What does this fold into?
Amino acid sequence: MIKCKHCSGKNFLKKGFRKTEHRGKIQKYLCKNCHKYFTNDEGFYRMRNKPEIITMSIDMYVSNLSSRKMRNQLKRHLSHKISHVSVLDWVRKYTLKVHKFIEKQGYNLGNSFYADETMINREGKLDRF
It folds into this structure.
C-alpha cells in the first residue's frame, strides 16, 4: 500500500518520474495533505543498482558462491562492475529483512512430518525412522 512517507497520508497524485542511472524511471507522487513529493519504497529505496542484480547476487551468495566470484560473474555476464563489499552489504541488509519477514509469518506444521534418518529417544528406547 502506498502512503506518504512524510505524513502517512493516502491522498496523493502521480506526478512525474525520478530518473536514476541504473534503476531507470521511478514514479513520483505528490501528497495532497502535506504537498510534498515522495516515491514508493519497494525495499530498494536509494539503492544504486537494479533490484534484479541485487536479488541475483543474494541468490548466488546463498548458493555458496563467494562475494569475489559473484563480482566476477556479474562483470563477465552482465558487464556490470560491482564491488565485492557491496555484495556483502546487500546480503547483510536483505537477509535480515527476509529473516524478520519469515519470523512474522510463523510456522505452519501439520500433524505429521517427514524426517530422513532421524533417531528419537522415546520412553527410554531409541526409535529409528
Summary: The longest strand covers residues 12-20. The first helix runs from residue 51 to 62. The CA atoms of residues 117 and 129 lie 6 Å apart. The two ends are 47 Å apart (CA to CA).
